[in-house]
Amino acid sequence: METLVDLVATGAQRFDRRPALLIRPFFRTRTWRYRDLGSIVPRAARVLHDAGISEGDRVILWAVNRPEWGITFFAIAHLGAVSVPLDVRHTVDFGRKIADQTGARLVVASHQTESSARGLGLPVLFVEDLTDRARHSEPIEVTSISSDALAEIVFTSGTTGEPKGAMLSHSNLLACAGAMTRVLSFGQGDRLLSVLPLSHLDEQVLGVIAP
Question: Residue 86 class from Cβ within 10 Å (0-12 exposed, 13-18 middle, 19+ buried)?
């Protein structure tokens, strides 16, 4: 297993019907199983591709914590594109700096961040709608991706100067996840509650990739 794409495919095969991502927005719990991720991620990638995203393109992910955040993150990787996560509390000015530095082509936002996302002057898709649109889309073939391909650019807050982007490959992220599972022991009977923003690398790796 060398890439995030392998991670999704392997998880679908090994864990099939086991719950992977859960959310309880109101009174009902919505569950995405591992095999659901294996099916929906290539379809969500098709939606992103139809929006003009292809290998190497930067996509700003500016959304609140929810399962669709993770699905979008993996769909971006499926295309060989690059995620650029932003904290929901970041300002529009900060977002514009990041968009300019990365040459971002698209913003995937949540309805809570819509006004900020539209302030970047880029096309906007919503995570809440992405999976519904994906269900009616044909899956797209995975791009041939090497383990050292760029997967994500994570930015500092810029409080002590201009924000700086840390460029992380697929193998960087998988290595982080492997290290965390060796330090924090959890297994198939455990559930992890995501509290920190998924734009933070710690939560992203421990809350989505490692499980």
Answer: buried
Please say whether the beta carbons of 76 and 3 come within 8 A: no
The answer to whether 196 and 203 have CB atoms below 8 angstroms apart is yes
| Cα three-residue angle 111-116-122, rounded to 5 degrees | 95
What b/e readout covers 21-48, taking b as 16+ CB neighbours within 10 angstroms?
beeeeeeeeeebbbbbbbbbbbbbbbbb
Q: What is the pLDDT along the chain (211 residues), one digit of tens a residue?
A: 899 999 999 999 999 999 999 998 788 889 999 999 999 999 999 999 999 999 999 999 999 999 999 999 999 999 999 999 999 999 999 999 999 999 999 999 999 999 999 999 999 999 999 989 999 999 999 878 999 999 999 997 656 667 789 999 999 999 999 998 888 888 888 898 888 999 999 999 999 999 9
Q: CB 193: neighbour CB atoms within 10 A?
A: 6
Length of the chain counted residue by residue: 211
Query: Which pTM value belongs to this model?
Result: 0.94
Distance CA(131)–CA(112), nearest Å, equals 17
Provide CB contacts within 8 A for 69, sequence distance 6+: 61, 63, 127, 198, 208
- Name the residue with tokens 């002590």: 160
